[in-house]
Amino acid sequence: MKTTAAVLRGVGGKWEVEEVELDPPGPGEVLIELVASGLCHSDEHMVTGDLPVAFPVIGGHEGAGRVLQIGPGVTDVVTGDPVVLTFLPSCGRCSYCVRGHTALCDDGAGAMLGPQLDGTYRFHARGEDLGQMCLLGTFARHTVVPVKSVVKIDEGIPLELAALVGCGVTTGVGSAIRAAELHPGDTAVVIGVGGIGANAVQGAKLAGCRYVMAVDPVEFKREKALELGATHVAANMDDAWQTVSELTRGRLADAAILTTGVAEGSYLQPALQLVGKRGRVVVTALGHPSEDTASLSLLELTLYEKQIRGSLFGSSNAQHDVPRLLELYQLGQLKLAELVTRTYALEEINTGYQDMREGRNIRGVIHY
After folding, report:
1. pTM (2 decimals)?
2. How crowded is the C-beta side of 238, counted as CA atoms within 13 Å?
3. Does residue 40 have an active-site annotation?
4. What are the helix (H) ranges across 214-338?
């Protein structure tokens, strides 16, 4: 079939919206008609080169829609089912999946390479194959993905909001609850209030934290953090430390979650200084692929038993966490509509990313 997609053809390029050819689903795959796709910062990392990929590639890894067709052997979903697409497949059988770490599923090893799990391509244009961001390519009106990458959800949930749970919401909430292991009465600091950080704030609130500090230099984002559950905000790390120290009588935070646009090595030590004894620093933001140095006090790390943890997809388990988060939304305990700053047509995708770069969006969303 023919459909329309936003294609990136090289580092530093613009998204090019064009007509593409899409093959039918193969074994273990499904054809999806998308309703919406979030404009996540990870796709921007492909533009800047911070996330190495093979070009050309159809971007997008945060989306929701309905199943149009199933491939041979698919039994988990049927035509017409509403689904959320998740950017990491889970097979349910590898060593990581059976231990409950489905975000680390072995099938995710090739997610950034371009082709599908069998090594072949589903999208084609201009006489060449097109890769799919994280096996998905949600910057397309239609896409073919592994059934391992979809989560069936209940009818009645707005798919344009459910799309957000495919990446940003689950990653942010999971970073707070799963990776940072926050508990009722804890103090949390979220560093960077974008599509992930906004939901880390929501996760800290859901966890029952008594203080949730959000740090961001953009006033609009600090105001949004207060709407989403932050109890305090700061424009910089020094001000955050001063407030957290006063609130906790010098004990500092139980966890700091790094959700900046890019993780820099220089951010670690200020984050470590924000947490107290046995405090956790969770690094959810993606760093530069070539950066292998970081500034931190090893003495402080040992003497106070502080910890630094990486977190992918919020260390979440999609088949369990996506439906659960949507239930929280239906119960009024998780905000989704409030995350969406602006919606765009697919043809406006470059405008959407410019708005993100300039700090005008918490989350921009493409509506098909």
Report:
1. 0.96
2. 0
3. yes
4. 219-228, 237-247, 268-274, 298-303, 318-330
